[in-house]
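Comment thread on ticket #2218

A.B. wrote:
> Attaching the input chain for the structure job we discussed in standup.
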Amino acid sequence: MRHATFSWAYLLIFSIFLFLSCKKEDDIGPAFDMTYQHDISIPAGIGGFAVHHFYIKDIPTRYQQLLTQQGKSDADIIDVITATASLDGLFGDADFGIIDQVSLRVFDESDPTDYVEIAYRQPVPLNVGNSLGLIPSLASSKRFMQQTRFSLDLVLWLRNTTQQETSTRVSLNLKARY
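C.D. wrote:
> Ran it. Output below, let me know if you need it in another format.
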């Protein structure tokens, strides 16, 4: 009996140590936000047998302006990572449950084959409704954000054929860590 109590005490101490040593995921150190939004339209009648790419091109990064506002230089920036990303229906009637997988990629328009996936969702829940939160990747997009402009590729794999046109807002919040 004494041995069982002793092992429970060790388990309790170990659990407390683990709990206290955990960091919050949001604690990424000093950073400033780089926020972007763009509206797209997912047309009716596209099916699930193909991969669908929605290109959002020539977006101003405002990188130099943000650096100046923060009193930082490009050399101070460690990396630029995705904090949050989402797809939101503009009129409250979107049903993103028709989407099976999502990949949001950043690229330079001069070479669309050189991209970095900055957010994804695989699989998408069936009853997601009007707002679909994407999972941020850990990949740095600094080399794209250092430029004056960048482009996004929203890649969708569908479960079924879309029944109606869906006006969608792509929201992206990046953190420039220093």
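A.B. wrote:
> Thanks. Noting for the ticket: The chain is about 20% helix and 45% strand.
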